[in-house]
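Cross-posted from the bioinformatics board.
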Amino acid sequence: MPTAGLLVIGNEILSGKVVDTNSPYLAKELRALGVDLVRILTIADEVDLIAAETRAMSEAYDFVFTSGGIGPTHDDLTMDGIAKAFGRKVVLSEAIVARIERAQGKPANESQRKMGLIPEGALLMDAGDLWFPVVVVENVHIFPGIPELLQKKFLSIRERFRGQPFLLKRVYVKMRESDIAPSLNELLVEFPDLLLGSYPRIGERDYHVLLTLESRDEAYLGRALEGLLARLPAEGIHKVE
Amino acid sequence: MPTAGLLVIGNEILSGKVVDTNSPYLAKELRALGVDLVRILTIADEVDLIAAETRAMSEAYDFVFTSGGIGPTHDDLTMDGIAKAFGRKVVLSEAIVARIERAQGKPANESQRKMGLIPEGALLMDAGDLWFPVVVVENVHIFPGIPELLQKKFLSIRERFRGQPFLLKRVYVKMRESDIAPSLNELLVEFPDLLLGSYPRIGERDYHVLLTLESRDEAYLGRALEGLLARLPAEGIHKVE
């Protein structure tokens, strides 16, 4: 199963001014693709920090995704940081400038030309009909922080990352987590490869705990689900989906 | 300004099954308190990983907050990880068990007793009317992943983290620094917690020395200012601001 790290770059997230919706989005997408997201890290807009963390993630995981810090203003330092991570210069991509000019039918201004500055030797990944391609350096895929743009770009290239996806069953349980914990431990002894999650919920009317059962093997997952349901009283189950 | 790191522990976040609302909540709260949140890191429920990242954050920041991985089930490994971070054992807190039993009016079961397992020597921070206290090890504050509980616990102790800004008074003095130095020394004997700065200025028409008085305590600062003015002749003061 391919692994991934996600580097979220932005003071606005750390200072609570903007809620990071990109991480939940990518976490869900990567899971559905069968990619194991191992780490999500949010850091400030600082070149040396971006460089160090990008480097570490690039060595540790198959894929790295960054979000944020792309654009024409003074605090957009992601391209500089990622270039530094790999000891590269930042250079003007005439291909990006040409795309911008083709899209708007007039010459790029100074700010737009700054958006053409990317790490030397970066790959421009054609992203469908987008005028701005996904910039890729080694295994690092650079996405903007604006959720609509990130999503559009990600969807255009996501098949590139597909592994063998996990299958998921959800069991909504009316009992307390502390009452079912022994049954869950027994289940894991019988099904050691099962990925079992147990999430207490407050404020739900119909259930107290959401259990998630996951496996890549459909038959194994089916047997584990049967094993779970056999261990809990039928009246303790709200629903299975 | 105090600094903080936030460690989010949970496979359910990385796998996209649960959206992390705790990070945005804490980011906003910490900002309002005057705490500089420097890093948010989301990792899986693995003891060694929790230990290593907790240790690193504990050394790097004034405060560390963890969310998730607290509870009676197999995947709740935060207490083990944080104990390991500081080379401590996990021990049963009879105080926590007693609180649970008092709250429910009956003996704790096996799973509930598991919730009393905390790092040896941990501080139990009384969190208002909550039956389960906030567990604190060194500078690491351990919060549950359930947003309603995390928020209730955080609100009950947040004043502890408030970054108290320094208050500043400036006194512009017409006398020479060498003439007022004895008075300044006397002042510091009377107000040992005062931060006092003395800056001779050349070329200013109206004064020769700028004095800065700083304290986090407004009343203390007021008394220190009075003490200073009482020690200097009125005609020697250009202005106070």
